[in-house]
Amino acid sequence: MATKLISPPLSCPWVTSREVIIKGLPRRRREWMVTKRNRVSAVTAMIVEPLSVVSSSAIQIHQWWEQNPNSLLLMTEATGGYSLASYYTSLGLFVISVPGLWSLIKRSVKSKIVRKTFVVNDVKKEPKQVAGEILSFFTRKNFNITDRGETITFEGKMVPSRGQAALLTFCTCISLASVGLVLTITVPDFGNNWFFIILLSPLAGVYYWKKASRKEEIKVKMMVGSKGRLDEIVVQGDDVQVEEMRKELQLNEKGMVYVKDARGLTHFLEHMVFKGSKLYLDRSEKKSDDSDSSRASLSSSSSTKTLVSLLHIVLHEPLCIIFIFFSRKALASMAVKCFSLYLILAAIVIGGVTSEYIEYNTKPRIVPEKINVHLVPHSHDDVGWLKTVDQYYGACVQNVLDSVIASLLDDENRKFIYVEMAFFQRWWRQQSNAKKVKVKKLVDSGQLEFINGGMCMHDEATPHYIDMIDQTTLGHQFIKTEFGQVPRVGWQIDPFGHSAVQAYLLGAEFGFDSLFFARIDYQDRAKRLREKTLEVIWQGSKSLGSSSQIFTGVFPRHYDPPEGFTFEINDVSAPIQDDPLLFDYNVQERVNDFVAAALAQVNVTRTNHIMWLMGTDFRYQYAYSWFRQIDKFIHYVNKDGRLNVLYSTPSIYTDAKYAANESWPLKTDDFFPYADKPNAYWTGYFTSRPAFKKYVRDLSGYYLAARQLEFLRGRDSSGPTTDMLADALAIAQHHDAVSGTQRQHVAADYALRLSMGYLQAEKLVASSLSFLSAAKSSTEKKNPGTKFQQCPLLNISYCPASEARLLSGKSLVVVVYNSLGWKREEVVRVPVSSENVIVKDASGKEVVFQLLPLSEIALRIRNEYVKAYLGRSPRDTAKHVLAFTASVPPLGFSSYVISDTGRTARGLSASYVTSGSMNQNVEVGQGNLKLRYSEEGVKITRHLSTKNQVTAEQSYAYYIGSNGTDKDPQASGAYVFRPDGVLPIKSKEEAQLTIVQGPLFDEVHQELNSWISQITRVYKGKNHAEIEFTIGPIPADDGISKEIITKLTTTMKTNGTFYTDSNGRDFIKRIRDFRTDWDLQVYQPVAGNYYPLNLGIYMQDKTSELSVLVDRAVGGSSLENGQIELMLHRRMQHDDIRGVGEILNETVCLPEGCKGLTIQGKFYVQIDKPGDGAKWRRTFGQEIYSPLLIAFTEQEGDSWINSHKTTFSAFEPSYSLPKNVALLTLQELENGEVLLRLAHLFEVLTCPLYAFPPLIMCYSYVLFVMAKVELKKLFHNKKIREVKETSLSGNQEKAEMEKRRLIWKVEGSAGEEVKRGEAVDAEKLVVELVPMEIRTLLIKFDDQIEMVGDKEQQHRL
Ligand SMILES: [Zn+2]
């Protein structure tokens, strides 16, 4: 979404820039427009007017003569012969003109040596840089350096040009004709034979040809002042060369004000006359003649002087001739004819023939021995940002696709890549069949290539890897179904930093051959440009190593073309004008620009292939504008011969890089955090819009469960499906969606789509549970009667289903579904309005429960937010939360019954609610985990052994978001985190605590101030503390941007090291103020150490390990040893000038008015012995992602329980997945096949050296080795007919994919080879998974054809 340039509004008024401020650009644009206008008028005036003067004066003379036959000058007409007066006048004029001819011939072979002193326009330029530019200018023109002393001397050899020789011959011919004419009058006896002297004219050409070859010498001296600044440059040499250098380097002659294009006419004629002449020696010629490599060919002559002489002939001599002709009666009519002929000839010569059709050769393919410039036409279309996805589609993207397709059909050599399937799908369904056939041909021929191919270009910091896989799979399946294609290239050009998971999982495991993007840290880029390491082999996973690596290319600049090569209608770049009748004829100039820009890129890239991205945000709405220019550049630059330019795609480019057989540097870890300037770390968006981030995460887990239930019931395309939720979730992964960097109304649009998707999925879940719980009789199965209700607002304690007063005799049935592959026991909480309740399991046995009071804060939020979401206040008044432990089998459900007994709860199950204050040393907790309280928050102590105990002190604080300073206006905003101080948040000493203690868990409610409160919990039998925070509305009246953090402080000696996850999967080692790839210059010690968290963060020392897991994407860091912090919420006062143009200030509105958004969330803290934390992080992390799904129904007595299936597991009884394996996807596809993804959750680990005794410590590492899953037990009542292993997105067979995989060479050691799980044996049906491996299987069952039938049910259940 963001480009460097300010995009013109065009017809799509919502494209602006994320990097808006590029100083000077608007000014430059203005200048260009002004000078362009000036140039036209100047040229018009100077060329058209003299000619019209000639012709109009001729007419005037003619009229005058007709009216005044006796006039002195023309009286000869009447008397015969000619007037002597006019004759001598003409002769005199003619004599004056002859030296012009002579001077023209003489000067054509000489150069005019000038000495000029220049000053540099751009004062910021270093002398070194200017020297480099001068060097590059002359070497490009094939000059050699002969002296490198104080004065640099360049030497080159000039060769004659045929065009110049011909021109001289022509001019001489005209001139001699005039001489002939005068002589016929002067010496009439010889008659018209005088005209034979024109036969001498070729001699002028011969003279030129013989003498023009000469040496040119240019001397350059740079005067550097006392402060190391470049004062002036003295240049001596040929006038033309010096002038060209001045223009290219934008130098000013000392003491002169340079008026751009003051030489308008000369300039114009120069192009007209010399457009066909060869300015430079061909590279190929040069190559063939090494001994003559010093030979250079310069500009064909000192064209300016030539032009003056030429003008002399063109304008002056005809006047003479006219006078003569009019003086001689017999020749009068011939004179008019001759003059017309002369004008035509002049037009032909000057104008370079007339305008005509040019066929551009756009065919070129790669030429191995040349520098190849791959031009890749593309449009970056954000799936929502400043406008919603549909608004962008309607206003911009359908223009793009319509006009691109038309342009591609026009020329079979043109190519285009398309990326965002959310848009392409919208467009595709609106096309006629005839059009679809044509487009399919374009795709088959490679003219239109889908790359990346997900529904959107997902963000890489804030999405969970499962969402990234799902959204890409959705797009890939569309491409496969409609076009039978498999995308080959990852294209993440805009996301703000790049994750390891993107490289290895969303890249290599999709079978991509390469991955490209633009945004990396500015310091990193500078180093990579210097060292030519923009292109690397990236091994994103240390567990999978080289088995999952990918060729990765970082663009040398942004994802737009080099400056001066953008061609949308309102863009400022000069188009190639190759029609000689147009005034801005500029072919050679533009070719030179192109070559210069390409050579600059060659300097920072390995191999002789470079890629230019021809396009940027929402471009190609008028695709002709781009394609026409690209056609011309390919045609003319190839004609020029210095480069080979071609229409290309990233796939073609990748193949070319591969064919070069080069070794590439190795890259591990990732590209976070991203900064584009010293004070601009894009680490604020890790937390921006925390409520939306949580909504996306909640629905992601729900979607996973809903797909399982859809499969277990049997997909029914006519009924509710998960498709809508899939679509909404996919779009929500866009890099301006879950990232929180869109405008408010766009965020609302994403949320609306998600809620609509949820409603569909909710119906599906209800009907599936109803189906699965129905009794055995087939009539009941076909029309299962149970109506299940669910409570999406359970997070704010709102659940009409459970709150409804349990009428006497009626009870509430709670069905709890577990989408994990292992058995789970977990506390379930539901709001109830009665305190006289008991809970029984399906067998009628009472279970232990706790009844808790709803805190005042919880009630306030419940009332306000229910009203805000639903437009009405909650009907019932929930007073309590009922909590009980549900025990649920893998991939199955259990049922519980809540009923009203009419009497108060028994002592055993009751909670003890007391209150205390901070200073009373309140302590809760069981076993070796204790919580104590202070004004800052909670102190969590874990006793790891009698001698080893660790305490983490939790506290809150907020960063003051910078408003920008005088030196740097960068403010903290939606993207950027730029803190300007930090303030602690403390409660009052006497603040009250509410302490709840019971048989299942203890919890303490604590209010730190009017806008931060929290509940801390410890569960029986669990070793982690759960912290549920409520933050908001963040006060904004003081005009201060606030970014709220919580910290955990210990005395651990962590030595600057901590670990954060990559999209919820691998953990990556981070070292404070350090980057693996370059020497970090620290300007932002806080923001520059922030990393995105999706699963969590941990740190270790020799005696302990502290892990924190999160419930959504947040930013986090460890800014001091032994300390961890999370950013939980942000409310800003400024926009951070990255294009969104709106302040991140989320509010919630009620009829009474709007106030800042309050968020609720949880994080989890556990302290372990070193090395033990992974087990908790991995398995509990999966439980956070996939919470238990709860549905409610009512029954009379025990009617429902007695007549329904109350527990269920899809697995064979007693089978469960190993604890190190998660079931990522179980989904029935539209074609009836079943998509199964299994993931090993653990990373490969080596036993830590300090583990003692090592054998016992490492014994627990059994989770870090290969895992096995038995498919027969997974689908124990179904017959598996076929299992096919595929790529991660299921769009190609794995074996085929591996066969096609490019094997890249890596500089140095490529790392150990990793052994993957064996292929699945059709008989045994066991899936092996090595650490961090994900395997994707397409399964066909024997009962696949029947969707919902008795036979199938028997198989299934
Ligand atoms: Zn974008």
From TrEMBL:
GO terms for molecular function: alpha-mannosidase activity; carbohydrate binding; metal ion binding. Keywords: Disulfide bond, Glycoprotein, Glycosidase, Hydrolase, Membrane, Metal-binding, Signal, Transmembrane, Transmembrane helix, Zinc. It comes from the Eukaryota. The chain crosses the membrane at residues 85-105, 165-187, 193-209, 334-353. CDD domains: GH38N_AMII_LAM_like. Its cofactor is Zn(2+). Pfam families: Alpha-mann_mid, CCB1, Glyco_hydro38C2, Glyco_hydro_38C, Glyco_hydro_38N, Laman-like_dom. It catalyses: Hydrolysis of terminal, non-reducing alpha-D-mannose residues in alpha-D-mannosides. The keyword Membrane applies. One of its GO terms (biological process) is mannose metabolic process. Its EC number is 3.2.1.24. Residues 680-754 form the Glycoside hydrolase family 38 central domain. The keyword Cell cycle does not apply. Belongs to the glycosyl hydrolase 38 family. Liberates mannose from p-nitrophenyl-alpha-D-mannoside in vitro. This is alpha-mannosidase. It comes from Arabidopsis thaliana.
